[in-house]
Amino acid sequence: MKRLFDFTVSAIGLLVLGWLILVLVIAIRLTSPGPGLFWQDRIGRGQKPFRCCKLRTMAEGTPHVATHQAAAASITRLGRWLRRVKLDELPQLWNVLKGEMSLVGPRPCLPVQAELIAARERRGVFALRPGITGRAQVLSVDMSDPERLARIDAEYAASRTFAGDVRLLAQTFIGAGRGDRVAL
Q: What predicted TM-score, i.e. pTM, was given to this entire model?
């Protein structure tokens, strides 16, 4: 049922919000050099790598590091706003449609985040598809605390329900959580 829900919502989301994604891609290109979409290798279900799609919020040429390790100066003005309202995640509906991600689940990590990967592996978190949002994001826990994040992800995995996922989506939609923090 979860996969059917993910597929249906992401397909409808892309149909209804495709125009907005296109407008934001154009706005990004007009306000900073580089592409509007950003593709990054992430670790998915079963530790299988996949290419995650997002709207670009950082300056072109910013090193591929976890957000909490990136300098605040690398985020563009428009990118700051996109992150605050969480619109930078919209293109991930494509990853959900393809089955690489879910609407709700642990956020996908970068291949270089060895400590987080090890902590998630110990707790069986990679049995789940990564999500656009999840319990940790709603609680404002980001990837800067890998052990705590993996523990929350494992708690989600052990107690997840369809109703709980809908609640997490609603909390994300109304603005719960602060997203990934950026280094100062």
A: 0.90
